[in-house]
Design brief:
Layout: E1 2-10, E2 15-17, E3 23-25, E4 32-41, E5 63-68, E6 71-77, H1 81-102, H2 108-116, H3 126-133, H4 145-153, H5 158-165, E7 170-174
Antiparallel strand pairs: 1-4, 2-3, 5-6, 5-7
Helix pairs in contact: 1-5, 4-5
C-alpha cells in the first residue's frame, strides 16, 4: 500500500492575526514557497481486536457523566470522592454567587432597569421616575440581582434563584443505560 502526502509550506505573510491574537488563513494572495511530494511504502497492517470476556453491567443511577462548561470530562460513580469534589466546587461557586447576587445595585440605571424594564431609558434616576409618574417617594422594590431574578423567575428561595439563573462550572447527568 502506498500513501501519498503533499506538503506545502506557506509564507508567514499568508496568515494574519485577528483582534483576538489568533492567526487566520488568508485565502487570497497565497504564494507557495516550496512544495514537496513524499511517498511512503506501508507494510501489511495488522488489525487487532480485543473483546471483553464478560460484559460490564452498569445499573441505572450508578454513574454520572460530568461536564465542565458543556464538555464531557469524565464519569463519576455515585457517592465517590471525585463526584464529591465536583459537587463541593459547585457548592463553593453557589456560595460566591449568593454573595454577588446579594450586593445592592450601585448604579441608578441598574435600579431603573431591574424595576422598570425597557422604560428605564426614559428616566435618569428612581427619584425622577417617582416625580414624573406621581408615585409617592419610596425605596425601589428591587435593589439587587436576587430580587431581579426572583421576580423574573417567580421564586423566593435565594439558592434556587442562583441555581436557575447561573450556569455552574460542573454539570452532572445520570447515565440511564450504556449500549
Amino acid at each position: 500500500m502506498e500513501l501519498w502526502y503533499r506538503l506545502i509550506l506557506l509564507d508567514k505573510k499568508d496568515y494574519k492575526g485577528d483582534n483576538m491574537g489568533r492567526l487566520k488563513k488568508v485565502v487570497e494572495d497565497v504564494e507557495v514557497v516550496e512544495a514537496l511530494e513524499v511517498s511512503e511504502h506501508v507494510e501489511d497492517v495488522e488489525v487487532v481486536e480485543e473483546l471483553l470476556e464478560e460484559p460490564v453491567q452498569i445499573s441505572t443511577g450508578d454513574f454520572f457523566a460530568v461536564f465542565e462548561d458543556d464538555r464531557l470530562i469524565g464519569y463519576a460513580r455515585e457517592n465517590s470522592s471525585s463526584l464529591a469534589r465536583y459537587q463541593e466546587s459547585n457548592y463553593n461557586e453557589l456560595s460566591d454567587m449568593l454573595e454577588r447576587y446579594s450586593v445592592p445595585f450601585d448604579n441608578e440605571k441598574d435600579i431603573l432597569f431591574a424595576n422598570l424594564g425597557s422604560d428605564a431609558n426614559l428616566y435618569q434616576s428612581w427619584a425622577q421616575y417617582q416625580h414624573q409618574t406621581g408615585v409617592a417617594p419610596s425605596v425601589p422594590p428591587i435593589v439587587n440581582l436576587l430580587g431581579y431574578h426572583g421576580k423574573r423567575l417567580n421564586i423566593q428561595d435565594p439558592e434556587e434563584i442562583v441555581v436557575r439563573s447561573h450556569a455552574f462550572k460542573y454539570v452532572f447527568q445520570v447515565i440511564e443505560e450504556l449500549d
